[in-house]
Amino acid sequence: MGIIVFGSINIDLVAIVPRLPMAGETLLGQEFFKIPGGKGANQAVALARLGVPTHMVGRVGKQNFSAELMQNLQEAGVQTEEILIDESVSSGVAIINVDSDGENQIVVIPGANGRVDQEDVERLSSLLPTAITLLLQLEIPINAVIAAAQAAKNAGITVILDPAPAHTNLPAELYPLVDIITPNAVEASQLVGFTVDEEDTAVKATEVLLQRGVKCAIAKLGAKGVVCATAEETFFVPAFSVNAIDTVAAGDAFNAGLAAALYNGLSLHQAVVWGTAAGALATTKIGAQTSLPDRVRFDAFLKERGMGNG
Questions:
Q1: What CATH code is carried by the domain that includes residue 84?
Q2: What pTM was computed for the model?
């Protein structure tokens, strides 16, 4: 049994800049990297590096980095048999600026990701009997996300949704199909319609999301920690203090850590700690998949912080 990730596969074109540019401004950058990314692929790689059997379902294009993207997933240990090579379009691309504080701006060109549809959901469905969890994000068409969540719910599979990129009007029908939703502060604010920036507003946001039908709502506040709520309990997990240099893929690492802990039979509270640790580690290196920790580094980090690994 393993975990399925259904979502986007991109190449990330990353510019390191002294600060984020203003509108109309030409800014001299400092470095450039070409790194495999995409929220779906990031989560799949992060899971595989944490030792979880992982299948990726999605699309790449006929050219524009497709071979590189597939090879990178396979080298990380991700099963790629259900990734379609779409001959009609290029692979997805993300153009990313990262400043000296580790903050970023991202522009995503969907490419093949924008063509994910029911055909892909059917390939996903063939894997559901061998899975315990499905991870979803919003870099593919929302109709495909809803169909995948419905298929997973019908199969009794846990659905974890990272509602990113942020949506202000996520379809109401999706919430009851989701077991765990994991917005960051910006995404939570857009979902609930008020500013989420501290623990108290995060608690209110999780209450709204529970009312909409999710079983568990997790609001990530970056360096301010994480609020997790279910119908039975609400708790807070503080952030790990690290030297953050790049926040790209931190949210993807969080979801992978969370899902990996649950896969290993740990409690929800410990799963949030795992997610928080994985997200923190991802901020200490440049890039998306290049920043994701393997199990040895992850376990060592938890041990250093007195958390053990279970």
A1: 3.40.1190.20
A2: 0.91
